[in-house]
Amino acid sequence: MKKAHLLMLALTASLLGTAGAVQGPTQDDLNNADQATDSWLMYNKGYMGQRYSPLDQINASNAANLQKTCTFKTGEAGSFQVTPQVYKGSMFIATSEHSYAIDASNCKLLWTNVYKPTGPEVNPVSRGFALADGVAYRGTPDAHLIAIDMGTGKTLWDVKVADSSNGYFTSSAPVVWNGMVFTGEAGADWGVKAHMYAFDAKTGKKMWTFDLIPTGNQAGADTWQNADSTATGGGSIWSSYTIDANKGLIYMSVGNPAPDFAAEYRPGANLYTNSVVALDAKTGKLDHYYQQTPNDSKDYDTSAAPVLYDVDGATRMAVSTKGGYLFSYDETTQKQVFKKAVITVKNQDKRPTKAGLPICPNYTGGSQWSSPAYMPSNKMLVVNAVDWCGVVKLGEVRLIKGQLFFGGAMQLNDIKTAVGNTIGYDAATGKELWRYSLPGVRIVGGVTTTGGGLVMSGDSNGTMFVLDGTSGKVLYKDNVGKAPIGGGVATYTVGGKQYMALAAGNTSKGVTGVADVGSRIVIYSLK
């Protein structure tokens, strides 16, 4: 009997494989993620970064009937800027040190992974995962890249990307393509010199590196007229990445140069800061780039990932910035199509002074880590942006290891003057179609569009809202316990039923001071 029992256990193990094993998402799944209805695989849903789902069970005619299905509370406070990622009914979410898997239909906890940092944690935030072949990849506040088993939550490997004691961290949600994991460093505000990397998805071995602050004979090095300034040149990558899978190009938004406000210290355009850079994904070689803000002196990062879309027979790339602009480029001609101010812009062509320069927006305004969404049914881009001004002051340029390297300071205007906006634009021309504005409130989280004609996001007061994509009219609102919303909304099906999941509880970028800031996932469905 004992021998028979052992044989039965062996047979069971051979049939089931490793306990909790998850197969996929496959490369085909990832290639089709933009149009998938049963999943939300990447930070911005799919490679094109459109944050659009063709799902239409929930639509303009019934959105008013939404109700909470369940809530998962992490028990943590702090930055919470993820968009929930879903595969085969399981949802994967990240905080600064914790990774969770929960049931995407009822919020039941499946597993928890706790990361134990080995270096200083520079900025405790994570924007999520890359999911592929049963593995969830994420960055850490001490600049590591780790691989986690999607079925069990076990850490499979851990690679140190950079030395966090110098100000580096890896906050962006990685992306996987053809066996490679792509991620880059952040930390420009601490005076780092950032890079973009590709790692082998199975082993974590580094495959290529691209210097975001070029030196020597590298293209763009001549845009740093003070060569010494490249050692602390900045160039953070904050959020996630976009891929043209047909061309094999990976696009990344690169943030501000350093020191943030003392542009005279680093004369020149300062490539590749404040730019969208397209690299050959296999080799890491530069293909092309677009710079939005040369020689930035106000911390106007191009921080949110770009979106690729097809309109009127042309492939476009669009990106929104902290400086308050929406840009669109033709990917065939590589020329700018439009540049649209989405909020108040003031004194952006003037340098900061020691006495102080009033500017609009301040460095917590514009579009922070959240990208535009695309709605193909009406050829519309939707942008979240905060209209909020301030005063920038020039100061001493002095680098102290591990401390902020601003070369000045920013004073924010009264928070009551801030206005959060969700705005629809014609994706071909940049013409404004409608605007949803909330005075005294910030809208910094992700915006999502659907085949049901919906636009979904949330505000700093903790209210999730659903808008009609044609008119911008409010169809549904729900407050999630006054937990500021800095994350995004994902929508997907489980068992053929459509759900919406929201990440709330963010306390960064001036949205603190509320009674209840614990991070949580709230899942909605129709009554």
TrEMBL record:
Superkingdom of the source species: Bacteria
Signal peptide (from-to): 1-21
Pyrrolo-quinoline quinone repeat domain residues: 40-339, 424-503
Keyword Chaperone: no
InterPro entries linked: PQQ_b-propeller_rpt, PQQ_rpt_dom, Quinoprotein_ADH-like_sf
Cofactor names: pyrroloquinoline quinone
Keyword entries, A-Z: Oxidoreductase, Signal
GO molecular function, one term: oxidoreductase activity
Matches recorded under PANTHER family: QUINOPROTEIN ALCOHOL DEHYDROGENASE (CYTOCHROME C) (PTHR32303)
Family: Belongs to the bacterial PQQ dehydrogenase family.
Protein's name in the database: Alcohol dehydrogenase
